[in-house]
Amino acid sequence: MPVIPLLLLLFFLSACSSAEKKSLIHAFKFADKNRQELKRILEQYQEDSPKFAASHFIIRNMLGKQSVDTNSIKASQPYFDAWATYFEKYGRYKNGAHYVICDSINRLHPNKRVHTRYIPDLQHISADFLIRHIDYCFHIWQQYPWCKDIDFDTFCKYILPYTTSNCYWEYASDFFLQKYAELRDTVQQKSYKEIGAILSKDVDRTFAQNWVLFTRKYPGLLPTTFENLAKAQIGTCLEANIYKIAALRANGIPAALNTFPNWGNANSPHFWTEIIGDEHIEELYDNIQRPYISDSDILVDNIFWKNTYSPTVKDTLPHVSIQYCRTIPKVYRINYEIQQNCLALRAKEEIPDFFRNPGIEDITDKYIVCKDIEVPLWDNKHKKEYVYLCCYDDNNWIPVGWSIPRKKQALFTKVGVNVLYLPAYYENGAIIPAGNAFILKENGELKCFSEEANKKEISATFYSKTPYRLHTALQAAGTVGTRFSVCNKKDLSDSLNVYTIEKLPFYEDSFKIPTNKKYRYLVCDFQNTPAFQDAYSIAEIKIFGKNRQQLEGQLTGTKGISDNKLENVMDGDRVSFYQPDKSEKRQYIVFDLGQPREVEKVEFYPRSDDNRIVTGELYELFYWDKKWISLGRQYGKENRLAFHNIPQNALFRIHNHTRGKEHRPFTYEEGKQVWW
């Protein structure tokens, strides 16, 4: 086998920066026994300067890239095989089919555990694959008319990379070449941005994103291979965007993965795809609550809890405000190219997982209103080299930005406004507070939660442990128009209407039946309720006779979908719910009480997150002062909590000891809970 001429390699390296040279040397060293494959790639293109430069770019930036060892995820493969079979036959998942498939496989293979292992790409990737991949990328870049304005630098960074977030498939290019052949023939005169938008919509239409399925119901099914994603078309928002970016790049569209470690006022990270060259944003997102009117309001991907115009959804009670939007603390791009100023290359101490990726680039100021801020710290000397800004999720503070402390302060750049933060150290996987928690106001001021600010005491009434989010309000609004009637004839011909839900029920509605007559049947008719994005759903219906005795009965009516079956309306669980099959002609439920009974009261619970204060359940109130400090426990009364002699300007949270785990931090302002 010929070797790369020494003079050619030396000439090329002389044109590289010192960082690029170092990266290439490290890549060959780390490749170990696989370095011959890397040499083959460079040898292949020693007479072709652009491809030689491109192959150099791929190899020197391969450090840190890895792929799933397929042998380590065999236990999850039956799920993806079954999903792939369904998708090939039927296309999009309908009526909860992905849940049904998952439940069926789990019954056949219960308690299968997946312990995912990764293999470094440098140590196993083949020259044949990368040569084929590089040739394919150059072909589309040079042949597709919409690529004519894409320069070499953009091509290398955003079309050439073979992987996104440690997930690739050797045959992805062939897959997308065939999948979108007809589309390419119809868009020859369009720009790459227009074609990118068409491809993105197609992926959004077919790829099923389901966070709950993969993180709560069946954790461990992810990560998986790109081949599984392509064939099964299912995953979380991360997998959906990995797939979308591969589809775009395979068709000559430069694209990148954007992300942040955690929302500012909600749990979990988020990912979305940016088409490079289409990132101009006329208005930056200021993290202020606003209702969705049209798609032009979506300043950043997925900020609204629901992309639904909701003029009928109003604040339900004087003390409750609907939360329309998620807030964003920082925005990062995950590049294939190693970023020389990234924390992963600088740090000599343990750092959070998110910042171990050497491709992270801070692009916060492209998307949101942000400030450079000096954050006060408690100590003049620091136990760690780096300090982090953290946002709060369900139980922990999550690092979202980093800085180097200088005496009793740290400069953090491009920090999103109207968000709650905590400066902290990272030690042995734990977050150690380094200063007071604070809210960054839009004008750049810090509202700090300090011991001094907590001295004044007040009394307060609390109604929930999380904000009343738009999707929960929409689920309630969707039940407006539900009619209840009573009767004694089996054919329901003698039905007497006794109540109609006329306004949005805040977690529940109830009514009394003003008659002493006995009835055998209670009918819940939802034939003419409004149509929102979410299907009609009911969490619970309770029927009471004399002396608050709860009445039992037999249920008939419109069948439910998947696990959201009819029986859920009387299972005593406010979280499970019934979702009727809308394909059926009649939309109703009949409660057969067995014999005529006196019915005094009916309670109706729409589907919800069940996060309001509930009478009889035990809660504990905490406030933040370097840690969460208890202010005492209390049982809910009349669906509220009343506390006295508590700090006025404090940061609070409420924990339910009876059931549930979700909660959010809040302040108490002008008699209302304000959520962060």
Automatic annotation (TrEMBL):
Q: Which residues form the signal peptide?
A: 1-19
InterPro entries xref list? Galactose-bd-like_sf, Papain-like_cys_pep_sf
Any idea which UniProt keywords this protein has?
A: Signal
Q: What PANTHER family has UniProt attached to this entry?
A: CARBOHYDRATE-BINDING DOMAIN-CONTAINING PROTEIN (PTHR35532:SF5), SIMILAR TO POLYHYDROXYALKANOATE DEPOLYMERASE (PTHR35532)
Q: What is this protein called?
A: F5/8 type C domain-containing protein
- Organism per entry: Parabacteroides johnsonii
